[in-house]
Each structure stands twice: as C-alpha cells, then as structure tokens.
Specification:
It holds the Pfam family adh_short. This is Dehydrogenase/reductase SDR family member 7. It comes from Allacma fusca. Keywords: Oxidoreductase. One of its GO terms (molecular function) is oxidoreductase activity. There is one protein chain. This protein is mostly helical and 284 residues long. It has a single domain, classed as NAD(P)-binding Rossmann-like Domain (Rossmann fold, 3-Layer(aba) Sandwich). It is built from eleven helices and six strands. It has a three-stranded parallel sheet, with helices on both faces. The protein has a three-stranded parallel sheet with strand order 4-5-6, with helices on both faces. Helix 5 links the parallel strand 2 and strand 3. Helix 4 crosses helix 9. The longest helix is centred in the first third of the chain and has 22 residues. The C terminus is likely disordered. The structure holds 2-acetamido-2-deoxy-beta-D-glucopyranose (NAG). 2-acetamido-2-deoxy-beta-D-glucopyranose binds next to loops. 2-acetamido-2-deoxy-beta-D-glucopyranose (NAG) binds next to loops.
Length: 284
C-alpha cells in the first residue's frame, strides 16, 4: 500500500470510529474517550473541597452523591435547608468515612448577591480552602444542550443557558494563565424535577408534570458521573444525552446550514418531543 492510500485508510477509519461514538455513545467523543481512557473522578476529587450549588435535587444532588463516592469534602447549597440535610445524610450513607464536618450544609439563594461573600467565608472557615469553584481552581457549570441550540417553547431556559456560555467563555479568557479550569456541562433530557417546576406562559403557573420511568432520558446519576469525568479531565465542554441530541449538536456545530434545514423538516413538535421524550405534552 502506498503512503497516500495508507493515509486515506487511517482517515476513513478515524471518521468511522468518531461517527460510531457520536451515534452509539451517550456523550460527545472527547467525553467518551475520557470516560474510557482518561483520569477517573475517584482519584481526582479524593480529599478536595467541592461546593455544589443546586444540591437539593436533580443533577446537583446526583453530583453531590457522586462526589461523596469519590471521597470529596462537600459544601451543599440550595434554598431548601431540609432537603440539603437529607442529601447530606444520604451522602454520608454512601461514604461512611465522611465525617459530620466533611459535609457543610450552606443554604443559599443565588440571586441574593449580598450572601455570596459571607457564604464563602463560612466555607474557608470550615475547610481552609475551596478546590472547585474558586481562584486557582475549577468551575463546573451545569448548562444544557439548550445552551448550544434553540429549543422551542423554552425561551427563558434556552436564553439563560446560552448566557452561561457567554459569561464563562468571557471568564475563560480573563483568567488565561491563572490555573483556573472551566468545564461547560451540557446534558440533554435528564430525569429531574424540572418539569414540575418549569413555568408556563401564565405568570406564576407551573407545568407540574411528573416524569415517568418510561421516558427516554438519562438518569441523573449517569449524567453526574459523565460531568465528573469531563471535569476530572479538564475538558472545556462536554455533552451528554441519549439519542438523537448528540448527533444533532455535532451537525449544528459543524454544518449549521444542514442542521437548520433538518430542523425545519423535523418541525417544532419533534423538538419538543425530544425535550420531553414522550407524547403527553403533544395536545398543546
Ligand atoms: C480549552 O481552554 C483553554 C483555555 O482555558 C485553551 O487553552 C484550550 O486550547 C482549550 N481547549 C480546547 C480543546 O478548545
């Protein structure tokens, strides 16, 4: 075989493997490779102090538990103190070597800006350091597939997730060379309380939908594991979702024109079904 043919064969093999991962795995290619050949979260977060916001439910709760398994010291924040205490108890159940003061329950309302600094002081008082979320440390930002593409009938959600990318890509540039890693985590549909609490077009009204075990979604545990793999391997961005979100995100990133044509053919209902992964919301 001459050199040219060899290069062609290698290239075609490479593309085929990438395509296979894109269509068969539940994450993007780099996250898949990191999960199989990269650093394991267990080694990376052992003994580290990690502040988890939104830790009272959903992906945040699952992240806290996965970190407990990795033997990290935890700061759990959200608005509901009782729920945080429950998560703390469950974390210590998962990893009995975590002592009472290895897990700090720190109720916090993110929009109460005044409370941020006193909260950080409390953490530094208890642990003397903060490894994930602070200067010379690491940020893991829970964005969404909706931070990468538009999702119909989720305007404010899509807008706020896109805003996270703008904010943290800016911060990434500001902090070049300061030993700060930022990982944007973009899950597709995940089992969580989001459908219960999501707003409708009427002010104050909530969707109040229970998710069903038959829904085609990723579990919060799997999502949390992949998030920690991405963070342990210092990936800048990571996507995790069941089909067909990952191939669509790739198409949108590399062939936006084709993606918009396909999006138009698929129609708004199809996107909404992918978001909810079932037909119950079809009537509206
Ligand atoms: C990730 O971000 C860092 C800056 O924080 C940059 O140096 C690096 O090239 C980026 N990696 C990729 C794969 O884009």
């Amino acid at each position: 075989m001459d050199l040219f043919s060899l290069v062609c064969v290698l290239y075609i093999t490479f593309i085929s493997v990438c395509l296979a991962i894109i269509f068969l795995a539940d994450s993007d290619v780099l996250t898949f490779i990191s999960a199989h050949f990269g650093k394991a979260p267990e080694g990376e977060y052992d003994g580290k102090v990690v502040w988890v916001t939104g830790a009272s439910s959903g992906i945040g709760e699952a992240l806290a538990k996965e970190l407990a398994r990795c033997n990290a010291k935890l700061v759990l924040s959200a608005r509901r103190k009782e729920e945080l205490e429950r998560v703390k108890t469950e974390c210590r159940g998962i990893n009995p070597s975590l002592k009472d003061d290895d897990v700090l329950v720190l109720p916090l309302d993110m929009v109460d800006l005044e409370s941020h600094e006193p909260s950080l002081k409390k953490i530094l008082n208890q642990f003397g350091k903060l490894d994930v979320l602070n200067g010379g440390g690491q940020f893991g930002i829970v964005s969404s597939a909706a931070g990468k593409v538009g999702v119909p009938n989720s305007g404010t959600y899509t807008a706020s997730k896109h805003a996270l990318h703008g904010y943290f890509e800016g911060l990434r540039m500001e902090t070049y060379g300061q030993n700060i890693d930022i990982t944007m985590l973009c899950p597709g549909p995940v089992f969580s309380g989001v459908l219960q609490n999501a707003c409708t077009s009427k002010p104050g009204e909530k969707v109040n939908q229970q998710q069903l075990p038959t829904d085609k979604k990723m579990t919060a545990e799997r999502c949390a594991y992949l998030c920690l793999v991405a963070m342990a391997n210092r990936l800048n961005e990571s996507w995790m979702s069941p089909l067909p979100v990952i191939p669509f995100l790739y198409l949108n990133a590399y062939q936006p024109y084709l993606a918009s044509k396909i999006g138009k053919l698929m129609g708004k209902q199809t996107f909404q079904k992918i978001r909810d992964n079932r037909d119950t919301l079809k009537k509206d």
